[in-house]
Design goal:
The protein has about 110 residues and is of the alpha+beta class. Helix content is about 20%, strand content about 30%. It contains 3 helices and 6 strands. The chain has helices spanning about 25-30, 60-70, 100-105; strands at about 10-15, 35-40, 50-55, 75, 75-80, 80-85. A hairpin with a 2-residue loop joins β4 (about 75) and β5 (about 75-80). The radius of gyration is 14 Å and the shape is globular. The termini are far apart.
Length: about 110
């Protein structure tokens, strides 16, 4: 995988076209190393996962590597990975989106 240019040092990414039935945190962080936060996008009424997420990467270099993976297959679907500049309208990364929160909640 060849890292994509990242001259602005962006660390927030938008991921699309993920399997909405089988994608989970473990699968995603095994496929894309360096993810520190995940905000799963869900339907506001049903709560159902829509197959997209915002992620925060540990470094701009990790983000560039991830964007270089755009189009690779995960769970038999070509994942779309793009840089997502923070528009300043929201708190990023959102509280409770840290990787590992899912496991910690299950263990308690």
């Amino acid at each position: 995988v060849k890292p994509a240019p990242n001259p602005e040092g962006i660390t927030r990414l938008i991921l699309k076209n993920m399997c909405n039935r089988s994608m989970d945190e473990a699968t995603l962080i095994n496929f894309i190393p360096g993810i520190t936060h995940i905000q799963w996008l869900t339907d506001w009424q049903s709560g159902k996962f829509l197959g997209s997420a915002f992620v925060e990467m540990a470094t701009p270099e990790d983000a560039a590597y991830a964007v270089g993976m755009d189009g690779l297959y995960v769970l038999n679907r070509p994942i779309k990975i793009k840089y997502q500049k923070n528009d300043g309208k929201d708190v990023w990364p959102p509280k409770g989106s840290e990787v590992g929160q899912e496991q910690q909640a299950e263990e308690q």
